[in-house]
Inverse folding.
């Protein structure tokens, strides 16, 4: 229980519908954990509905997230720590999402290795509204194939059916698992392991990161067979592929995967990734704001996060980083002098920004 709270605390996060923050929960930690453990053991535990918030997915689209109460997040982390060691050994080697000691970069490196071995055709697949459309019965039945403990299965059902509070209105959840829940990524991997197994048994090579996956083949005919095969699997799982986002392409033409546009010529930031990054920078460097040390600190956090992710050994983002660094400096000059003028380049030089402590994206690029 203590280890679960420590994990929840390290992930930070906002309060749920009960408005109890992590700090408030920790103020009476021993009593809170004992009460939670007692409820879990005696099957009296009832999770609260998750608090619905929306974050930008694009300029015109929002992504719904569910924020459970801190107490519920601790309970979910306890469940996750019990289930993960059981399911980890049976997960497929080509699954990289939300797994210990695995990351996005390893998934991309795996895809690049397959391309190097002649797998030039790509089925770039996207499951339509995956987290919102996983049938609850499918989740529980799939977990039950490995777990016989009725208390554990009952808790999972309770979390899935806890409901959502959206602007003060309670909405029941009869399908799906909320993005933002501690347990959701593991449950997603448990369900999609069925897809992994069947693809492997059919002889297809693939790379999957949560619900984002690609199937790599040596010719177009095999890619079309893979598409038909995946569609049949999705039907058995009561889900479907997105017609707009699923396509057959080649390594030469390129495709988007985990924030990159990957092709035989380059591994660069995809346009949407650039847009998200520049939107964050624009928000911090608005001309009406004051230019001070806090601005530099906020910028550095955004710059470091993006540059560390995209500045890998396999990426070809160096020129992109140089251009973005120059653009950030222009934004700051406009912010400082409340105008846009090339003359200001001499008033605030690169050396000036270095003295102010502004990070450069290009410095994080790995050769």
């Amino acid at each position: 229980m203590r280890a679960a709270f420590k994990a929840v605390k390290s992930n930070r996060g906002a309060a749920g519908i009960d408005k109890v923050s992590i700090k408030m929960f920790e103020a009476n930690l021993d009593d809170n954990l004992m009460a939670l453990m007692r409820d879990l053991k005696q099957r009296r535990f009832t999770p609260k509905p998750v608090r619905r918030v929306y974050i930008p997915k694009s300029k015109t689209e929002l992504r719904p997230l569910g924020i459970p109460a801190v107490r519920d997040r601790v309970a979910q982390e306890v469940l996750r720590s019990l289930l993960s060691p059981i399911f980890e050994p049976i997960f497929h080697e080509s699954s990289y999402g939300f797994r210990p000691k695995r990351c996005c970069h390893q998934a991309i490196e795996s895809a690049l290795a397959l391309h190097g071995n002649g797998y030039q055709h790509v089925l770039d697949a996207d499951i339509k509204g995956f987290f919102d459309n996983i049938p609850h019965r499918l989740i529980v039945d799939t977990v039950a194939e490995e777990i016989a403990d009725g208390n554990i299965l009952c808790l999972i059902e309770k979390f899935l059916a806890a409901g959502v509070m959206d602007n003060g209105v309670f909405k029941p959840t009869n399908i799906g698992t909320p993005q933002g829940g501690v347990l959701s990524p593991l449950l997603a991997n448990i369900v999609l392991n069925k897809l992994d197994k069947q693809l492997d048994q059919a002889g297809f090579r693939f790379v999957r990161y949560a619900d984002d996956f690609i199937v790599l083949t040596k010719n177009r005919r095999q890619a079309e067979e893979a598409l038909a095969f995946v569609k049949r699997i999705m039907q058995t799982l009561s889900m479907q592929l997105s017609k707009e986002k699923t396509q057959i392409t080649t390594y030469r033409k390129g495709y988007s995967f985990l924030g990159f546009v990957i092709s035989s010529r380059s591994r660069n930031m995809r346009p949407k990734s650039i847009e998200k990054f520049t939107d964050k920078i624009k928000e911090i460097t608005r001309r009406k704001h004051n230019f001070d040390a806090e601005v530099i600190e906020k910028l550095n956090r955004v710059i470091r996060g993006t540059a560390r992710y995209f500045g890998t050994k396999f990426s070809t983002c160096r020129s992109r980083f140089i251009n973005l660094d120059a653009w950030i400096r222009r934004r700051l000059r406009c912010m400082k002098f409340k105008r846009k003028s090339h003359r200001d380049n001499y008033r605030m030089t690169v050396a000036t920004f270095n003295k102010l402590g502004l990070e450069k994206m290009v410095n994080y690029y790995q050769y």
Summary: The mean pLDDT is 94.
